[in-house]
Every structure is written in C-alpha cells, then in structure tokens.
Amino acid sequence: MNDFAWQFSESLAAVVDKAAAGVVRINGRRRRPSSGVIWSPGVVVTTHHVLEWEEDIGVGFPDGTTSAAAVAGRDPSTDLAVLRVAGATPEPPEWGDAGEVKAGHLVMSLSRPGTKIRAELGLVGGVGEAWRTPLGGRIDSEIQADLGIHTGFSGSALVDLRGRVLGVNTAGIYRATVSLIPTATVRRVAEALLAHGQVRRGYLGIGTQPARLPAELAERLGQPSALLILSVQPGSPAAQAGLVLGDVLLAFEGAPLRHPGELLPLLDEERVGKEVTLSILRAGEIREVRVTVGARNGKETE
Fold first, then answer.
1. Do the Cβ atoms of 302 and 291 come closer than 8 Å?
2. CA pair distance 22, 36, nearest whole angstrom
3. If residue 9 lies in a helix (H) or strand (E), which one and from where to where?
4. Per-residue pLDDT in tens (0 to 9) along the chain, 302 residues
C-alpha cells in the first residue's frame, strides 16, 4: 500500500472514531437490532418502522452498556422516532448540513448492529430537492448514495469525511431501498415530537374518491379527474366552510387535485390554522371556497 492510500485509509478510520461514539444500537423489535443516533443528552433519534413496542427499548452504547428507553414520539410519514433514554448518554455527534453535499462526494454509513461499529464507504451519485414520502411527509433534500442494506442499517448515521452526521439512513420509506432523512428534517421532526409527541398535520374533514370530469371541463382545466366529496365530518373545517356531499374538489391553492394522494401532502404542519382557497365544482359551476385548515388528532379523514 502506497503512502497516499495509507493516509486516506487512516483518515477514514479517524472519521469513524470521531462519529461512532454517537451511534447506538436499538433493540426495539424481535430478532433484528437497528441503529440510532444521539440527538441531544438523553435523546436518541431512530427510524419509526424498527420499533415494535413503546417501552423498555434497549439502547446499546459503545462501551457495551445498555439502558432502557421509551418512545417520546414517532412520525410514520417521515419514518422517524425519538427515544428518551433512562440515564446518561455519550455526547451527541456533530450534526452537519446535508445541503452541502454534492454528487461525487464520499460519505460513510455508521451503524451499530452489535456492540461494535460497522462502517461502509459510499459515493454520492446524485442530490435533489425536497420530496414527499408515500405518507405525505416532507423530506427536505434528497441524497442518493451507493450504500448496502444490512442488519442495523435503518437508524444509522450518514456522515461526511469531516465526521459530521448528515442525517439518518432508512430502508423503511420505500421497502429495501436506501433513503436518507437529512439533518434539517430530523431537527424539524424531533423538535415537534419532543414538544408534542407528534407532528401536527392539517385536515379538512372530508372523505373523497377520484371522479372523472366532463370532457369539456377536463380539457379546459387540463386535468382529467378531481375529488368527489363523499363525506363531510360535522364541525370540521370543511363543514364550517360550507362544503357538502357531492361537491367536486378541483384544486387546493391552485394545485390540481386528481387523486386523494395529492391532497395529503398539501395538509402539512405549516398549513394548520391558515386559510386556504379551494376550487370546487358544484351544480356545474366552478366556485372558490375559503377554508381554515384544522389540526389532525389522528381520528379525522382528510
């Protein structure tokens, strides 16, 4: 091995040494452990899908000790969960900004499937803008890296070659596909879960199904279908705004609505308490209705 290769190898080992103390093992499901990353003293972030129970979750530290933890909150839409650990934890790692990553950068995945750290080197193949998960959660940026999925991968840390944690890895948003939940998303969701136990979601209080529009209207609007309102929850924002069964929801703040999956992402936390404009079709006439978005408590429809 030449001097350059040896120096590069030593630099990678130094990155692992720097960040590994903040990566822990999570025993929250049968048979297979996962990983987590210390967010702040006594607080660990991991992925939602690896937790099968709420209490007495085992958190394994680099020194071989284990502490019990409980779920402080979880957000299935971003596949994140926050744990409160009983007792002291090591110091949190340095969290960096995933927005600084470029295609071609080298990154490392650090997991703790057992008592020892596992490190994997990967190349960033592409970066992208904010995106939505299938459940409507907002992920603030996209990083595609050629990392393999292994035991303990979900909840592991993605770190740059300065040893800064760029986010939490998961294979649970799209099954058997690597996704990164970047620091900006972890921060936003963790703060909400620690404060409220959940991430607030907006709701209108309607049940819908797709419905084809008349050919002339579809051509004029540039959308073949819209959302037929099948139910309106009494006392809901939709009911207070005067929406009724049989109304057809065409657009939300100008964004066309062709199937229910397009409405959910628009009802994020930032919309709660704000007035929005809905375009509806009623008795053959297009109207605009102003609705104040409510906060979902887990029992409502859209």
1. no
2. 8
3. helix 3-20
4. 678 889 999 999 999 999 999 999 999 999 899 999 999 999 999 999 999 999 999 999 999 999 999 999 999 999 999 999 998 999 999 999 998 999 999 999 999 999 999 999 999 999 999 998 988 889 999 999 999 999 999 999 999 999 999 999 999 999 889 999 999 999 999 999 999 898 888 889 999 999 999 999 999 999 999 999 999 999 999 999 999 999 999 999 999 999 888 898 888 888 999 999 999 999 989 999 999 999 876 444 45
Prediction pTM value: 0.81
Distance CA 287, CA 302 (A): 20
- Residue 58's Cβ-count burial label (10 Å; 0-12, 13-18, 19+) is middle
